[in-house]
Amino acid sequence: MKALILVGGFGTRLRPLTLTLPKPLVEFGNRPMILHQIEALANAGVTDIVLAVNYRPEIMTAALKKYEKEYNVKIEFSVETEPLGTAGPLKLAEKILGKDDAPFFVLNSDVICDFPLKEMAAFHKAHGGEGTIAVTKVEEPSKYGVIVHKPDHPSRIDRFVEKPIEFVGNRINAGIYILNPTVLNRIELRPTSIEQETFPAIVKDGGLHSFDLEGFWMDVGQPKDFLTGTCLYLSFLTKKGSKKLTPTSEPFVHGGNVMIDPTATIGKNCKIGPNVTIGPNVVVGDGVRLQRCVLLAGTKVKEHAWIKSTIVGWNSTVGRWARLENVSVLGDDVTVGDEIYCNGASVLPHKSIKANVEAPSIIM
Ligand code: GDD
Ligand code: MG
Questions:
Q1: Is any atom of ligand 1 closer than 6 Å to the C-beta of 141?
Q2: With a cut of 0.95, is the ipTM above it?
Q3: CA-based radius of gyration for the chain
Q4: Which of 10, 131, 9, 7 is nearest to 76 (CA)?
């Protein structure tokens, strides 16, 4: 089978992390976000993956070529010279996606779930329509694409409304599709939106169906959601009894849902968890308290620091007795001084924080 992952966009909502790495390469659960998708596609029998890229393609190509062997898939880069939106990239990759009559998957690169792709493909085949969208329920539908059903049909979509201003429903597009190659005939090679142009057109012809996602789902394209998504993902791993998690028998693990890379070192008398990921080569000093946070590779947390609801960017240093909370995000190579308090600080790469950040703000 074939698949295309939409990897473009500038990832501005995940700044300052995306000032250093393209969004799909930012580690989620200690692995580049996009690896979760490549792995799921490979497990569903996909052999040809197109990565639709426009933002810093050279970094992406270098980082991802090596996964071809690991997952036994062919990864091709389809590079846009101008951002083609969410539909244009499908047309650009028409040679690959349309090479046979079989349907293909399309994934947004920033969504995390259990990826029931095999079930979705079987469902798509069974209803015989032109496309299937995975849907999930959310409490705040306005930042997503909302789908509305025909009252007389369990899965046929009646309306697709991207980012509705008024409430039309709470079942949203989860950013995972399976489409017949005929959809490519509906798309022109220009910047165009699958949500605003292609889906409404298929809906009009009665060919778009929804597939209900079971379990967790999150678009992790912004810091607050990245943290929530991390909690959901770690809980999911706990439920599965995954070996990826640090055993709760470790004396420093508190409340479970903790994932620590084997190369990280943890000091004495720490209290870590629940919902923490600690990346490669991280050094955590004595007496540190960590909860609901992400420490990316190479960070250093000094003694007695207290970190909650925070993403600490690569190679950053958090000082002794520092306190970070309320969706603080440190970019790459940031230094937070001893005893400093950060409340919702978003700190650009290579900065040094020497005074308290009392209220949420961007530090540049
Ligand atoms: N190649 C390419 N080119 N990819 C792009 C471009 C582009 O010009 N613009 C955006 N993308 C990619 C992004 O990298 C992302 O993977 C995907 O397309 C969706 O873009 P986002 O910017 O993340 O959109 P969103 O989160 O506001 O909304 C989308 O996702 C929601 C689910 O998370 C829509 O598909 C909504 O309908 C949906 O509910
Ligand atoms: Mg998104």
A1: no
A2: yes
A3: 21
A4: 7
